[in-house]
Amino acid sequence: MSNLMPVVTIQWDWHEILRLPNDEVWISAKYLNTNSVHDKSNLCLVLKHMESGLKIAFVAATKAHNVHKKAVLSVALAENALAVSSCEEDKLLVWDTRTNEALLDLDGHGGPIYKCRFFPSGIVVISSGADGSCRIWSAESGINPVTLKGHTMSVPDVCIVEKGRNVISVSKDGFAKLWDIGESQCLDNIIEGHGPINCCAIAVTTDEVEIENEREVETGNKALVVGCENGFIICSHVGKRQDIFRKEMTSACNACTIVDQTIVMGCEDGKLVLLNLQDGTVIKEIHESASPVFCMATLSNHLFAIGRQDGNCVVISIKDEFAAVRVQLTGSDCDGIRDIAFNGKWILAACRDSYIRKYDFNQISVHFK
Protein backbone atom coordinates (compact mmCIF):
# COMPACT_ATOMS: atom_id res chain seq x y z
CA MET A 1 0.00 0.00 0.00
CA SER A 2 2.87 2.39 0.67
CA ASN A 3 3.71 2.57 -3.09
CA LEU A 4 0.17 3.64 -3.96
CA MET A 5 -1.13 7.18 -3.70
CA PRO A 6 -4.59 8.01 -2.37
CA VAL A 7 -6.92 10.64 -3.74
CA VAL A 8 -7.14 13.40 -1.15
CA THR A 9 -10.10 15.76 -1.49
CA ILE A 10 -11.29 18.83 0.36
CA GLN A 11 -14.64 20.53 0.85
CA TRP A 12 -15.33 22.36 -2.42
CA ASP A 13 -15.83 25.82 -0.80
CA TRP A 14 -12.93 25.51 1.66
CA HIS A 15 -11.41 28.85 0.64
CA GLU A 16 -14.62 30.65 1.63
CA ILE A 17 -15.10 28.73 4.90
CA LEU A 18 -11.54 29.32 6.13
CA ARG A 19 -12.07 33.07 5.98
CA LEU A 20 -14.30 32.67 9.03
CA PRO A 21 -12.61 32.45 12.45
CA ASN A 22 -12.44 29.01 14.09
CA ASP A 23 -14.42 27.32 11.31
CA GLU A 24 -13.60 23.89 9.88
CA VAL A 25 -13.75 22.08 6.56
CA TRP A 26 -13.78 18.37 5.77
CA ILE A 27 -11.01 16.45 4.04
CA SER A 28 -10.85 12.80 2.98
CA ALA A 29 -8.25 10.31 1.77
CA LYS A 30 -9.23 7.32 -0.36
CA TYR A 31 -7.15 4.57 -1.90
CA LEU A 32 -8.60 2.91 -5.01
CA ASN A 33 -11.29 0.35 -4.10
CA THR A 34 -11.19 1.16 -0.37
CA ASN A 35 -13.36 3.25 1.93
CA SER A 36 -12.55 6.92 2.48
CA VAL A 37 -10.97 8.18 5.70
CA HIS A 38 -12.50 11.51 6.74
CA ASP A 39 -11.29 14.24 9.06
CA LYS A 40 -11.75 17.95 9.71
CA SER A 41 -9.20 20.71 9.68
CA ASN A 42 -8.98 24.46 9.93
CA LEU A 43 -5.64 24.64 8.09
CA CYS A 44 -6.05 22.91 4.74
CA LEU A 45 -3.85 24.63 2.18
CA VAL A 46 -1.04 22.04 2.02
CA LEU A 47 -1.37 18.58 3.57
CA LYS A 48 0.81 15.51 3.81
CA HIS A 49 -0.70 12.04 3.85
CA MET A 50 1.62 10.28 6.26
CA GLU A 51 0.95 6.68 5.21
CA SER A 52 1.79 7.22 1.52
CA GLY A 53 4.05 10.27 1.78
CA LEU A 54 1.78 12.19 -0.60
CA LYS A 55 1.95 15.99 -0.44
CA ILE A 56 -1.27 17.55 -1.65
CA ALA A 57 -1.72 21.30 -2.18
CA PHE A 58 -5.18 22.80 -2.65
CA VAL A 59 -5.43 25.84 -4.93
CA ALA A 60 -8.65 27.84 -5.10
CA ALA A 61 -9.86 29.60 -8.23
CA THR A 62 -9.13 33.31 -8.50
CA LYS A 63 -12.44 33.72 -10.32
CA ALA A 64 -15.45 31.65 -11.38
CA HIS A 65 -16.77 32.83 -14.75
CA ASN A 66 -20.48 32.34 -15.43
CA VAL A 67 -20.78 33.13 -19.14
CA HIS A 68 -22.91 30.01 -19.78
CA LYS A 69 -26.27 28.92 -18.39
CA LYS A 70 -25.73 25.19 -18.84
CA ALA A 71 -22.92 22.64 -18.43
CA VAL A 72 -19.73 23.70 -20.20
CA LEU A 73 -18.34 21.25 -22.77
CA SER A 74 -15.10 22.87 -23.95
CA VAL A 75 -12.93 25.93 -23.34
CA ALA A 76 -9.83 27.48 -24.90
CA LEU A 77 -7.71 30.44 -23.85
CA ALA A 78 -5.58 32.77 -25.96
CA GLU A 79 -2.56 34.76 -24.80
CA ASN A 80 -4.54 38.01 -25.20
CA ALA A 81 -7.02 36.99 -22.44
CA LEU A 82 -9.74 36.05 -24.93
CA ALA A 83 -11.54 32.79 -24.27
CA VAL A 84 -13.89 30.67 -26.35
CA SER A 85 -16.19 28.08 -24.82
CA SER A 86 -19.18 25.89 -25.60
CA CYS A 87 -22.00 24.52 -23.48
CA GLU A 88 -24.93 22.08 -23.54
CA GLU A 89 -27.16 24.94 -24.69
CA ASP A 90 -25.35 24.56 -28.07
CA LYS A 91 -23.74 27.96 -27.51
CA LEU A 92 -20.24 28.83 -28.71
CA LEU A 93 -19.11 32.12 -27.17
CA VAL A 94 -16.02 34.31 -27.43
CA TRP A 95 -15.57 36.30 -24.22
CA ASP A 96 -13.10 38.39 -22.25
CA THR A 97 -11.66 36.72 -19.13
CA ARG A 98 -10.86 40.13 -17.61
CA THR A 99 -14.41 41.49 -17.75
CA ASN A 100 -16.52 38.31 -18.12
CA GLU A 101 -18.17 40.02 -21.10
CA ALA A 102 -19.49 37.84 -23.94
CA LEU A 103 -18.20 39.39 -27.17
CA LEU A 104 -19.43 37.02 -29.89
CA ASP A 105 -22.04 34.28 -30.22
CA LEU A 106 -20.71 31.95 -32.93
CA ASP A 107 -23.85 30.41 -34.42
CA GLY A 108 -23.62 27.73 -37.09
CA HIS A 109 -23.22 24.23 -35.68
CA GLY A 110 -26.25 21.96 -35.79
CA GLY A 111 -26.02 20.62 -32.27
CA PRO A 112 -23.57 20.42 -29.35
CA ILE A 113 -20.03 21.74 -29.86
CA TYR A 114 -17.63 19.24 -28.31
CA LYS A 115 -14.33 21.03 -28.88
CA CYS A 116 -13.14 24.58 -29.47
CA ARG A 117 -9.56 25.75 -29.82
CA PHE A 118 -7.66 28.92 -30.71
CA PHE A 119 -5.15 28.93 -33.53
CA PRO A 120 -1.70 30.20 -32.44
CA SER A 121 -2.60 33.69 -33.71
CA GLY A 122 -5.21 34.01 -30.95
CA ILE A 123 -7.71 35.58 -33.36
CA VAL A 124 -8.98 32.46 -35.16
CA VAL A 125 -11.03 29.64 -33.62
CA ILE A 126 -11.75 26.08 -34.73
CA SER A 127 -14.75 24.17 -33.37
CA SER A 128 -16.12 20.68 -33.90
CA GLY A 129 -19.28 18.96 -32.85
CA ALA A 130 -22.15 16.53 -33.09
CA ASP A 131 -23.03 17.61 -36.64
CA GLY A 132 -19.80 16.04 -37.94
CA SER A 133 -18.30 19.32 -39.10
CA CYS A 134 -15.34 21.48 -38.11
CA ARG A 135 -15.78 25.25 -38.47
CA ILE A 136 -13.23 28.04 -38.61
CA TRP A 137 -14.23 31.38 -37.08
CA SER A 138 -12.82 34.86 -36.77
CA ALA A 139 -12.63 35.70 -33.05
CA GLU A 140 -12.74 39.37 -34.02
CA SER A 141 -15.79 39.47 -36.31
CA GLY A 142 -17.54 36.12 -35.78
CA ILE A 143 -17.39 35.28 -39.50
CA ASN A 144 -17.26 31.57 -40.40
CA PRO A 145 -15.27 31.52 -43.69
CA VAL A 146 -14.43 27.79 -43.68
CA THR A 147 -16.48 24.70 -42.86
CA LEU A 148 -14.83 21.28 -43.06
CA LYS A 149 -17.27 18.49 -43.96
CA GLY A 150 -16.44 14.85 -44.52
CA HIS A 151 -17.05 12.96 -41.28
CA THR A 152 -20.24 10.92 -41.03
CA MET A 153 -20.47 11.06 -37.24
CA SER A 154 -19.65 13.50 -34.43
CA VAL A 155 -16.19 15.05 -34.10
CA PRO A 156 -15.04 15.06 -30.44
CA ASP A 157 -11.52 16.46 -30.90
CA VAL A 158 -9.20 18.41 -33.21
CA CYS A 159 -5.47 19.18 -33.47
CA ILE A 160 -3.88 22.23 -35.08
CA VAL A 161 -0.63 21.60 -37.00
CA GLU A 162 1.91 24.36 -36.20
CA LYS A 163 0.47 27.75 -37.31
CA GLY A 164 -2.69 26.18 -38.68
CA ARG A 165 -2.42 25.75 -42.44
CA ASN A 166 -3.51 22.20 -41.68
CA VAL A 167 -5.65 20.68 -38.93
CA ILE A 168 -6.53 17.12 -37.96
CA SER A 169 -9.97 16.03 -36.78
CA VAL A 170 -11.00 12.72 -35.21
CA SER A 171 -14.47 11.28 -35.27
CA LYS A 172 -16.74 8.59 -33.91
CA ASP A 173 -16.80 7.31 -37.51
CA GLY A 174 -13.26 5.97 -36.91
CA PHE A 175 -11.39 8.40 -39.17
CA ALA A 176 -8.62 10.87 -38.36
CA LYS A 177 -8.62 13.36 -41.25
CA LEU A 178 -5.93 15.82 -42.33
CA TRP A 179 -7.45 19.05 -43.67
CA ASP A 180 -6.24 21.88 -45.87
CA ILE A 181 -7.81 25.00 -44.33
CA GLY A 182 -7.10 27.26 -47.31
CA GLU A 183 -9.01 25.07 -49.76
CA SER A 184 -11.50 23.59 -47.25
CA GLN A 185 -10.74 20.04 -48.28
CA CYS A 186 -9.55 16.76 -46.80
CA LEU A 187 -6.03 15.88 -47.90
CA ASP A 188 -5.99 12.34 -46.54
CA ASN A 189 -7.09 9.96 -43.82
CA ILE A 190 -4.26 9.53 -41.30
CA ILE A 191 -5.98 6.77 -39.28
CA GLU A 192 -8.98 4.63 -40.14
CA GLY A 193 -10.57 1.30 -39.36
CA HIS A 194 -9.92 1.13 -35.61
CA GLY A 195 -13.37 2.07 -34.35
CA PRO A 196 -14.72 5.31 -32.81
CA ILE A 197 -12.00 7.83 -31.84
CA ASN A 198 -12.47 9.93 -28.70
CA CYS A 199 -9.39 12.15 -28.50
CA CYS A 200 -6.19 13.22 -30.23
CA ALA A 201 -2.89 15.01 -29.65
CA ILE A 202 -0.03 15.96 -31.94
CA ALA A 203 3.71 15.87 -31.24
CA VAL A 204 7.06 16.43 -32.92
CA THR A 205 9.05 13.30 -33.75
CA THR A 206 12.71 12.86 -34.68
CA ASP A 207 11.71 10.81 -37.73
CA GLU A 208 11.29 13.44 -40.47
CA VAL A 209 10.30 12.98 -44.12
CA GLU A 210 10.02 15.43 -46.99
CA ILE A 211 6.48 16.40 -47.98
CA GLU A 212 5.91 16.98 -51.69
CA ASN A 213 2.35 18.36 -51.50
CA GLU A 214 2.60 22.14 -51.05
CA ARG A 215 -0.85 22.16 -49.41
CA GLU A 216 0.54 20.03 -46.57
CA VAL A 217 2.68 22.21 -44.30
CA GLU A 218 5.06 21.04 -41.54
CA THR A 219 3.63 17.54 -41.22
CA GLY A 220 6.87 15.74 -42.11
CA ASN A 221 7.98 15.45 -38.48
CA LYS A 222 4.62 15.09 -36.76
CA ALA A 223 3.14 12.15 -34.87
CA LEU A 224 -0.59 11.89 -34.24
CA VAL A 225 -1.78 10.09 -31.11
CA VAL A 226 -5.42 9.03 -30.80
CA GLY A 227 -7.42 7.28 -28.10
CA CYS A 228 -10.24 4.98 -29.16
CA GLU A 229 -13.50 3.85 -27.59
CA ASN A 230 -12.36 0.22 -27.81
CA GLY A 231 -9.29 0.97 -25.67
CA PHE A 232 -6.68 1.26 -28.40
CA ILE A 233 -3.98 3.93 -28.33
CA ILE A 234 -2.68 4.51 -31.85
CA CYS A 235 0.36 6.61 -32.76
CA SER A 236 0.75 7.38 -36.46
CA HIS A 237 3.38 9.33 -38.40
CA VAL A 238 1.42 12.07 -40.17
CA GLY A 239 3.87 12.62 -43.03
CA LYS A 240 4.44 8.92 -43.72
CA ARG A 241 0.80 7.87 -43.17
CA GLN A 242 2.12 4.91 -41.18
CA ASP A 243 1.31 3.60 -37.71
CA ILE A 244 4.25 3.87 -35.31
CA PHE A 245 2.61 1.66 -32.68
CA ARG A 246 -0.68 0.43 -31.23
CA LYS A 247 -1.43 -0.40 -27.61
CA GLU A 248 -4.62 -1.78 -26.10
CA MET A 249 -5.87 -0.53 -22.73
CA THR A 250 -8.45 -2.17 -20.48
CA SER A 251 -11.10 0.53 -21.04
CA ALA A 252 -12.02 3.36 -23.41
CA CYS A 253 -9.40 6.06 -23.94
CA ASN A 254 -11.10 9.41 -23.29
CA ALA A 255 -8.40 12.10 -23.26
CA CYS A 256 -4.74 12.49 -24.13
CA THR A 257 -1.91 14.99 -24.12
CA ILE A 258 1.82 15.10 -24.89
CA VAL A 259 4.27 16.16 -22.16
CA ASP A 260 7.79 16.48 -23.55
CA GLN A 261 8.20 13.09 -25.30
CA THR A 262 5.67 11.31 -23.10
CA ILE A 263 2.10 10.43 -24.09
CA VAL A 264 -0.37 10.68 -21.22
CA MET A 265 -3.66 8.86 -21.84
CA GLY A 266 -6.66 9.07 -19.53
CA CYS A 267 -9.10 6.16 -19.49
CA GLU A 268 -12.72 5.44 -18.64
CA ASP A 269 -11.68 3.27 -15.67
CA GLY A 270 -9.80 6.22 -14.14
CA LYS A 271 -6.33 4.99 -15.07
CA LEU A 272 -3.59 7.26 -16.40
CA VAL A 273 -1.10 5.58 -18.73
CA LEU A 274 2.24 7.21 -19.58
CA LEU A 275 3.92 5.93 -22.76
CA ASN A 276 7.11 6.69 -24.65
CA LEU A 277 6.22 8.62 -27.81
CA GLN A 278 8.88 6.89 -29.92
CA ASP A 279 7.89 3.25 -29.46
CA GLY A 280 4.84 3.08 -27.18
CA THR A 281 6.68 1.56 -24.24
CA VAL A 282 4.60 1.95 -21.08
CA ILE A 283 6.58 4.13 -18.68
CA LYS A 284 4.13 3.82 -15.80
CA GLU A 285 0.49 3.61 -14.90
CA ILE A 286 -1.23 5.76 -12.27
CA HIS A 287 -4.48 4.33 -10.98
CA GLU A 288 -5.54 6.35 -7.96
CA SER A 289 -9.22 6.84 -8.82
CA ALA A 290 -12.01 4.90 -10.51
CA SER A 291 -13.58 8.12 -11.78
CA PRO A 292 -13.33 8.43 -15.61
CA VAL A 293 -10.83 10.94 -16.99
CA PHE A 294 -12.67 13.52 -19.11
CA CYS A 295 -9.94 15.96 -20.17
CA MET A 296 -6.24 16.86 -20.06
CA ALA A 297 -3.90 19.76 -20.74
CA THR A 298 -0.12 20.12 -20.82
CA LEU A 299 1.10 22.92 -18.55
CA SER A 300 4.90 22.76 -18.91
CA ASN A 301 7.67 20.39 -19.97
CA HIS A 302 6.79 18.09 -17.07
CA LEU A 303 3.38 19.13 -15.70
CA PHE A 304 -0.10 18.23 -16.90
CA ALA A 305 -3.62 18.70 -15.54
CA ILE A 306 -6.47 16.20 -15.66
CA GLY A 307 -10.19 16.59 -15.04
CA ARG A 308 -12.45 13.75 -13.93
CA GLN A 309 -16.14 12.92 -13.92
CA ASP A 310 -16.34 13.36 -10.12
CA GLY A 311 -15.08 16.97 -10.29
CA ASN A 312 -11.51 16.19 -9.28
CA CYS A 313 -9.06 18.43 -11.14
CA VAL A 314 -5.41 17.76 -10.34
CA VAL A 315 -1.95 18.71 -11.59
CA ILE A 316 0.68 15.95 -11.85
CA SER A 317 4.34 15.82 -12.89
CA ILE A 318 5.92 13.17 -15.11
CA LYS A 319 9.18 13.52 -13.16
CA ASP A 320 9.93 10.79 -10.61
CA GLU A 321 11.14 13.37 -8.07
CA PHE A 322 7.58 14.73 -7.86
CA ALA A 323 5.81 11.36 -7.93
CA ALA A 324 4.35 12.03 -4.47
CA VAL A 325 3.14 15.59 -5.19
CA ARG A 326 -0.35 16.59 -6.32
CA VAL A 327 -1.92 20.02 -6.69
CA GLN A 328 -5.69 19.97 -6.65
CA LEU A 329 -7.66 22.76 -8.36
CA THR A 330 -10.73 23.13 -6.19
CA GLY A 331 -14.18 24.62 -6.66
CA SER A 332 -16.29 21.92 -8.28
CA ASP A 333 -18.77 20.30 -5.90
CA CYS A 334 -18.53 16.83 -7.53
CA ASP A 335 -19.53 18.19 -10.97
CA GLY A 336 -17.43 16.81 -13.82
CA ILE A 337 -14.55 18.77 -15.36
CA ARG A 338 -15.16 18.70 -19.13
CA ASP A 339 -12.14 20.61 -20.47
CA ILE A 340 -8.98 22.42 -19.38
CA ALA A 341 -7.24 25.35 -21.11
CA PHE A 342 -3.85 26.97 -20.46
CA ASN A 343 -2.15 30.04 -21.96
CA GLY A 344 1.14 30.01 -20.03
CA LYS A 345 -0.19 32.07 -17.13
CA TRP A 346 -3.76 31.08 -16.40
CA ILE A 347 -5.61 27.77 -16.29
CA LEU A 348 -9.32 27.54 -17.09
CA ALA A 349 -11.34 24.51 -15.96
CA ALA A 350 -14.73 24.03 -17.64
CA CYS A 351 -17.26 22.35 -15.38
CA ARG A 352 -20.63 20.62 -15.60
CA ASP A 353 -22.02 23.14 -13.07
CA SER A 354 -21.85 25.81 -15.86
CA TYR A 355 -18.86 27.64 -14.33
CA ILE A 356 -15.41 28.11 -15.85
CA ARG A 357 -12.89 28.53 -13.03
CA LYS A 358 -9.65 30.45 -13.43
CA TYR A 359 -6.41 29.48 -11.62
CA ASP A 360 -3.05 31.22 -11.36
CA PHE A 361 -0.31 28.91 -12.69
CA ASN A 362 2.28 30.53 -10.39
CA GLN A 363 0.33 29.22 -7.37
CA ILE A 364 0.61 25.73 -8.84
CA SER A 365 4.15 25.52 -10.20
CA VAL A 366 5.68 26.58 -6.89
CA HIS A 367 4.82 23.15 -5.44
CA PHE A 368 6.99 21.41 -8.04
CA LYS A 369 10.28 23.20 -7.27
Automatic annotation (TrEMBL):
It holds the Pfam family WD40. It comes from the Eukaryota. InterPro entries: WD40/YVTN_repeat-like_dom_sf, WD40_repeat_CS, WD40_repeat_dom_sf, WD40_rpt, WD_repeat_multifunction. The keyword Repeat applies. GO terms for cellular component: proteasome complex. Keywords: Proteasome, Repeat, WD repeat. SUPFAM superfamilies: WD40 repeat-like. The keyword Transferase does not apply. WD repeats lie at residues 106-147, 148-189. Belongs to the WD repeat PAAF1/RPN14 family. This is Jg26618 protein.
